[in-house]
Amino acid sequence: MGNLIDTIGNTPLVEIRGFHKNPDVRIFAKMEGNNPAGSVKDRAALNMIRSALERGEITKDTKLIEATSGNTGIALAMIASLYGLELELVMPSTSTRERTLTMEAYGAKVTLLESMEICRDYAEEKGATGGYFILNQFANPDNYGAHIKTTGPEIWRDTAGEITHFVSAMGTTGTIMGCSMFLKEKNPAIQIVGCQPTEESSIPGIRRWPKEYLPKIFDPSRVDRVIDIAQDDATRRARELVRREGIFAGMSTGGAFHAALQVADDIKEGLIVFIACDRGDRYLSSDLFG
């Protein structure tokens, strides 16, 4: 028995069997949609808020603000509600309605602006006034720290140390940074593979940042390979995952899966783990599954 926070993490690994023919290459999805707020961002949200409280940087009376494309915002809204904290989330107006409604259901205020870059500028400006505390997932070590503490160790444990390749979408880059730090410490030979959209693609949860907006927590030396993902491929793979494997997840998961399949084609043997970062129900008002 425990509280809701205790259910964050320890998500299952599910083997994907029907997409490649080499029996010496195995692909597993880390099912982060099983977290209580529905994504891998539950881990970072908890670590950022709880660590800030423990350090005395925020109190119960602090107003929080954060720019988000969706999943982090939902996770922060859940954690803030559990700690009784006031929270404003700033999100691109192109985000699905499900995301806004979910954040508001947890009690967060939602502000919609034109683009993610404008959202980040707005949050940083309000944070600089002193009236708000910006968690700043793009520069906060507690973001990747969550994955050093939890995600990386779980993958290492559940693969019995046999993982050879780790694949993740890159947004804030917290997941790939933290998992890289932990897994490379265990075995430097493990290959860390990130994916980003092609220049012309838009994939929720995966970003190709302009240089001036590149997350400060990102260290390119911790990623062995970056694969560009086309929007059509991310969409197609998300649809295939739900229809052929029963894994109901979003476009960023489709993108990571597409990258994992590329890795599988390039190796003769190995164990690949990719992050299935959220649930597909928050995309139902879009054309993703249409």
TrEMBL record:
Pathway: Amino-acid biosynthesis; L-cysteine biosynthesis; L-cysteine from L-serine: step 2/2. It catalyses: O-acetyl-L-serine + hydrogen sulfide = L-cysteine + acetate. Its cofactor is pyridoxal 5'-phosphate. It is an enzyme of class 2 (transferase). GO terms for biological process: cysteine biosynthetic process from serine. The modification N6-(pyridoxal phosphate)lysine is found at residue 41. Keywords: Amino-acid biosynthesis, Cysteine biosynthesis, Pyridoxal phosphate, Transferase. One of its GO terms (molecular function) is cysteine synthase activity. Pyridoxal 5'-phosphate binds at residues 71, 171-175, 252. InterPro entries: Cys_synth (IPR005856), Cys_Synth/Cystath_Beta-Synth (IPR050214), P-phosphate_BS (IPR001216), TrpB-like_PALP (IPR001926), TrpB-like_PALP_sf (IPR036052). Residues 6-278 form the Tryptophan synthase beta chain-like PALP domain. Pfam families: PALP (PF00291). Its EC number is 2.5.1.47. Belongs to the cysteine synthase/cystathionine beta-synthase family. This is cysteine synthase. It comes from Sphingobacterium allocomposti.
